[in-house]
Automatic annotation (TrEMBL):
It comes from Roseateles saccharophilus. Belongs to the Maf family. YceF subfamily. Gene3D superfamilies: 3.90.950.10. It catalyses: N(7)-methyl-GTP + H2O = N(7)-methyl-GMP + diphosphate + H(+). Its main location: cytoplasm. It comes from the Bacteria. Its cofactor is a divalent metal cation. It is found in: Cytoplasm. It holds the Pfam family Maf. Its EC number is 3.6.1.-. The active site is at D69 (proton acceptor). This is 7-methyl-GTP pyrophosphatase. Keywords: Cytoplasm, Hydrolase, Nucleotide metabolism.
Length: 191
């Protein structure tokens, strides 16, 4: 089996990929994640996923490399990882009662292949009071998550609905699409 590499240091993506029970190594891609001027959130996610996979593939010839990126899209504006409590509070206030579209792209780069797919997850947040936001942030501390909420944890209580055809996409790695791309690279997860 060729070497499988996840071009990410995200613990969330590593946990998701581990579900496939394939041996893999996680490698930091060291890619500048700054959006280009006027770059749409979906295009940003796709560009970064492919860039991460390509950078790591160049260091590991012959490997199958997975790159992924997620951008929260609030009315056409990219919403990133908040990093701080204050930024997360501001994000959740802006998102309260609104729909946020999470654009999650996954790319696989392998000998003879550079392919990308994107999953879109529509999330409707309920109306959030400042007290609810503060309680949630103190409990979950989602400062490393785009959109300031962890749906796989207490963040689910902030939501009214989630719509997607690839349920793991919201956590950061769309596994249905990842399996499709791995098969295209010659790696069958169920072999």
């Amino acid at each position: 089996m060729p070497q499988l590499i996840l071009a990410s240091t995200s613990r969330y993506r590593q946990e998701l990929l581990a579900r496939l029970r394939l041996p893999f190594e996680a490698v930091a891609p060291e890619v500048d994640e700054t959006a280009l001027p006027s770059e749409a959130p979906a295009a940003l996610a796709e560009r970064l996923a492919l860039a991460k996979a390509r950078v790591v593939a160049a260091r590991f010839p012959g490997a199958i490399v997975i790159g992924s990126d997620q951008v929260a899209d609030l009315g056409g504006e990219a919403i990133g990882k908040p990093g701080t409590h204050e930024a997360a509070t501001a994000q959740l206030r802006r998102m309260s009662g609104r729909e946020v579209v999470f654009q999650t792209a996954v790319a696989v780069v392998a000998p003879g292949l550079a392919a990308i797919e994107r999953a879109e997850v529509r999330v409707r947040l309920r109306e959030l009071s400042d007290a609810v936001i503060e309680t949630y942030l103190r409990a979950d501390k989602p400062y490393d998550c785009a959109g300031s909420a962890k749906v796989e944890s207490l963040g689910i209580a902030l939501l009214e609905a989630v719509e997607s055809d690839d349920p793991t996409a919201l956590i950061g790695l769309p596994l249905i699409r990842t399996c499709t791309l791995l098969r295209r690279a010659g790696l069958e997860p169920l072999a």
